Known about the structure:
By secondary structure, the protein is an alpha+beta fold. It has helices at 5-17, 29-40, 77-93, 117-131, 145-151, 173-186, 237-243, 315-328, 368-382, 388-396, 436-455, 479-492, 497-507, 511-516, 529-541, 547-554, 557-560, 562-580, 584-602; strands at residues 19-25, 45-49, 64-65, 99-100, 103-108, 141-144, 160-166, 169-170, 190-193, 195-202, 208-215, 221-231, 256-264, 274-277, 285-291, 294-298, 302-303, 341-347, 416-420, 426-430. Strands 1, 2, 9, 10, 11, 12, 19 and 20 form an 8-stranded mixed sheet that branches. Strands 13, 14, 15, 16, 17 and 18 form a 6-stranded antiparallel sheet that branches. A 3-stranded antiparallel sheet has the order 3-8-4, with no helix packed on it.
Amino acid sequence: MVFSLERRKQDIQALKEETLDVLIIGGGITGAGTALQASASGLKTGLVEMQDFAEGTSSRSTKLVHGGLRYLKNFDVEVVADTVQERAVVQGIAPHIPKADPMILPIYDEPGSTFSMFSLKVAMDLYDQLASVTGTKYANITLTKEEALERVPQLKSEGLLGAGVYLDYRNNDARLVIENIKRAAEDGGHMVSRMKVVGILHDQQDKACGAKVEDLLTGETFEIKARIVLNTTGPWSDTIRQMDDKTDAAPQMRPTKGVHLVVDNSKLHVPQPTYFDTGKQDGRMVFVIPREEKTYFGTTDTDYKGDFSNPTVEQSDVDYLLDIVNDRYPSANITLDDIESSWAGLRPLIATNGGSDYNGGSKQAITDESFDRVISTIEAYQKGNADRIDVEDALQSVESSNAESGANPSSISRGSALDIDEDGLITVAGGKITDYRKMALGAMRKVIEVLDHDFNKSFQLIDSTQYPVSGGDLNPQEVDEETDKLTQQGVELGLSESEASYLANLYGSNTPKVFALLDDVEKAEGLTLADTLSLRYAMDEEMTLTPSDFLIRRTNHMLFMRDTLDSIIEPVIEEMARYQGWTEEMKVQYKNELEAAVAESDLKTLKGE
């Protein structure tokens, strides 16, 4: 399968000529997951994205497939059960992307703490049962204060009570998107980036029947006809619905901004992902995560009303995170100048769904009084001073507090919603990356139902729990062993072990395709052999159209390999220009675009550079 600039031209021609079964607007994780299921189920599928795939929200997360341990403070067992079960499904269909990486959660004696050592242990034991890891190497453990400090010497010792360690997974968010997109394209879907929707089309019955789009590479405008139009644009969901002049959809999105900052691990060294209260009694927790030779931390959570396509890191974001991290790691003394890279992203939160999730589950908070009552009853039960009925009564009498507090964006539901407007436009919004496949499944069930009822077209939905993304044809139970075998293949072909391992971990079962390029590709001047192969594969097979696509989203070079970024910018531009036939004007345009992205990531404006 070739998924290149030439393929884009073919897909555009098909979009002009065919009537699709479903046109998906939005190429983030929800749209990508839906496109995979639609294409694999035999629907004539098109997807348009106005930026690069994953360029909006889906490359700007905390880069975890997070289990949601914190929800167990509220005894929200259903949500955590759904999350950890779905995480296992994602690990099964994309085994080269989510990787097990146990999390440490230090506990401090301070007001407003999310957990005490006791409640943390209760939550972790329940979490292990829900994740089916009780009795395995991933079962939780508790650490004394001394053990926690031995493991993480830079942690603040004052007020430290101990810590818990439990299973979590790191993720490569943008790679998860492109691997879904590639599989959809392989199955016949027309996946087109840099294609902006400028209007919703309607038939004679005023039903949505496609979209008017603008090709942002050529300036051409044309119409795409489709039986069903599906809006999966995340923070832009309201924008698309309000573009539809046949409906009067009330705004439902309340996006919040999350910021992450990256420093060298010599400045802040953590042996494993770490998760703790901010210490500010603001109801938030912060992650500190090692990646490559770097450490990144976040996230903020503030209401956002600016340009959705370009959320930026502000001084207040930096001040907030540095204050927290320097308090928890007093010897780090991180300053603005220590920040090597950064990113800001939006969470497509729904303001009015009362914590509900159309895939099931609720995230309503409970009152402190109810929580204390449950904990004290459990303590009494363990001491023999209460029986099981007392515990059940305490759980059943839990009182919910207002989960949709207007003052606190952190309290807004992470749930998802599926809405059908009067003209038939379907919108899927909200949710988390971990839930993307289930959100796509809910959307596809509705799409297939409408196709059957309104168009007399019948489709059998694939079992998406068993259908791997591109690169995911590995045994999930032996992914490390299979990745090692792929690495060895690369070494035998002349790559260094580090280069071969890098490629094997990035591309999974597609790695042999990358290695096969050794027969056709010479190492580009200024690039390593691994980077040369990766770049060519990205242009051939991953619709990489600009240097920013490659260095930010197909790889994480800008974020986690900042030390070598400056030296490879020119070689990457030259190699792409040679391969894609750019004019000098196009080279300058793409270089300026990349330099602007790097300057933003570097926080040059805040640093006064």
